[in-house]
Amino acid sequence: MLELAGIIILGILAQWVAWKFKIPAILPLILIGLLVGPIAAEFLSADGSKWIEPMWIEPELDAIGKPVLDEHGKPIPGRGLFPGESLYYFVSLAISIILFEGGLTLRKSEIKNVGPVITKLITVGSAITFLGSGIVAYYIFDLRWDLSFLFAGLIIVTGPTVITPILRNIPLKKDVSTVLKWEGILIDPIGALVAVLVFEFISVGGDSGFTKTALIEFGKIVLFGTTFGFTFAHALAFAINKGFIPHYLLNVVSLSTVLLVFVESELFAHESGLLAVVVMGMVLGNSKLENLKELLYFKESLSVLLISILFILLAANINIDDLLLLYTWKTAILFAIVVFIIRPLAVFVSTHGSKLNLNEKLFISWVGPRGIVAAGIASLFGSKLMRDGVEGAEYITPLVFMIVLGTVLLNATTARLFARLVGVFLTKSNGILIVGASKLPRLLGHYLVNNGRHVVLIDSNQNNIDKAEELGLDAINSNIYSDTLSDNIELNDVGYIMAMTGNSDINSYVIEKFGKEFGENGSYRLVTSDEMNNPEKSPEEGLFSPTDDYINLSEVTRKYPAIHEIELDDKAHYESLMEMASKDRYMIPLFLKDNEGELHIISIHHTKSDKIAEGFKLVYLGKPFDVEKVVSED
Questions:
Q1: Pick from 444, 449, 438: which is nearest to 601 by CA?
Q2: Quick check: 543 and 520 in contact, CB under 8 A?
Q3: Which of 22, 78, 247, 266 is the most buried (most CB within 10 A)?
């Protein structure tokens, strides 16, 4: 009981440490597992036992078959959590749920929209990593060809769970962060699929040299895996959309269906279960499922708990002898070739002819941490192959753990420094986060993007998000009260935040919650109706005009949906125009545009009016200024 509770407590503690110090969770999880496992057995325990022993160890017997007694004359009991093969069953089921969640995040539309660079990275780049790593592992560690390519398939995967914490606090150009983000998301299920297929090929091949029978068995695995995954995905989507499953049972029914698919597929074709759940997740993720977002949130929470338990167990299950296998110069050479030769080669080939410059390619080459899926599947496959007596299988788990820990440590400690070194570190955050994606924010966003600013719109209304994306704007469907925004590495260059929803409480919350994180250069919100009617209450962060709340701005946008520019002569000219605009409810000043094209947000209490010179422009929303009236006023 103590060991089970300890695993959960230590796992969640590791997740909290990872969140607090902004590091990938896999790092403290594996280190804790190694500490309570092989390190404790070798250096800390008086009796040489692990503090947490995942595998059940039978009671020790003497020469005549009787239990060995302790110093008190009592039989020494057996120890461990999982008897027989139950650890493998638990790991298999846990990995199936994690891979299903990964499959849910893979969208066909996203693959089409991410551009040729990412498409090449997850295809050409993966092939280079797979072939290169397999050949290197074969010649350096003298592994069998099939095991070498199993190792190679496992280290294809990077994964968003390790990329995001590393890049979260590194301000990068949007192109660079987008490439790294989507490579991690898209390559997760693809890399897992490659590893599963290689493992299944090994499983059916045995020592037969991959005969006709082995190929037939391999075909059965692919057939049953894809068939079960595809069929059950459509059946579950149909049941959910038709209302056959009550809302309160939605998540648990989905979970039980995933486990059912895994087990059923395994019964028909051994080792086809993981393929089935990956396919099921991918099909569900691309179906018109009304409750997909809710399903994702549940699976994400479950995955966090399973990952916390899983990696402490897997790391604790490693013996000191497994670690000593890596205590050789061969390990350092393999790591160096994979990280400093194969990864850059894959990146440079995949980005050839793209708009990325040399420094950006170098940074993408440097950042390639392997993640949770790689380590989890490596432990599962390595253990199964060792149990089956496959020669050289003992190298798979420690080699992959070495790549995972090495790349995570390298990138977590050097990514920020390397970004500065190669010049991709943004010294000024000019991106703008607009909370709200109604017509006015979309109009503003479109204008800002056309003037060279990176803009991201946030809204919980999918209809508004769709309209923003039709305009070519970056838009995220997100609940502003969730913590997911802080994890979005595409917001790394954001230095301004504009809260422009119709709910004044939400606008105030945005400034309070995200002002420091995303508004280092300026945090603004629309005034409330009370503040508008009482100018003395005008807030410091008031946006645009003290006399225009969301309703007024929406009315102006509805009647005059256009943003205009008028050239300024001097400060007096600017003040004259501002005076005219204040008397006309259909003219609302938005920005000052300087001689270099830089836009400065006009707020209630802060403007750049002191620096206005000839050539500056006033940017405003609504009815165009009457030129003759402007001249006569001057």
A1: 444
A2: no
A3: 266
Six token digits for residue 410: 């390298």
Digit-coded pLDDT (tens) for 60-105: 665 666 666 666 666 666 677 777 677 777 877 887 887 787 777 6
Secondary structure (3-state) at 200? helix
Contact 493, 467 (CB under 8 A): no
Give the 3-state DSSP-derived string for 473-500, with helices as H, strands as E and coil as C: CEEEECCCCCCHHHHCHHHCCEEEEEEC
User: What is the layout of strands, in order, in the sheet containing 563-567?
Assistant: 563-567, 617-622, 587-593, 599-601
Is residue 433 within 8 A of residue 456, CB to CB? The reply is yes
Say yes or no to pLDDT of 15 above 80: yes
Half-sphere exposure of 394 (CA within 13 A, CB side): 11
DSSP annotation of 9 reads H
Quote the pLDDT of residue 214.
58
- Cα dihedral across residues 219, 222, 228, 231: positive or negative: negative
Distances (CA, A) of 388 to 76, 144, 316, 497: 30, 15, 21, 57
Mean pLDDT of 165-192: 74
Query: 519-545 b/e with 16+ CB inside 10 Å = b?
Result: beebbbbbbbeebbeeeeebbebbbbb
Which candidate, 281, 117, 127, places its Cα nearest to that of 183? 117
Contact 373, 159 (CB under 8 A): yes
The pLDDT of residue 77: 62
* Euclidean distance between CA atoms 570 and 609, whole angstroms: 9
Name the DSSP class of 201. H
Q: How far is CA 393 from CA 57, 328, 552, in A?
A: 22, 17, 69
Q: Are 283 and 105 in contact (CB under 8 A)?
A: no
Give dist(CA 179, CA 165) in Å, integer. Answer: 15
- Note whether 285 and 104 are within 8 A (CB): yes
Separate counts of helices (H) and strands (E) for the chain? 26, 9
Please give the full DSSP string across 370-421, using - where no structure is assigned. Answer: --HHHHHHHHHHHHHHHHTT-TTGGGHHHHHHHHHHHHHHHHHHHHHHHHHH
- Can you tell me the distance from the alpha carbon of 382 to that of 632, in angstroms, rounded to the nearest whole number? 84
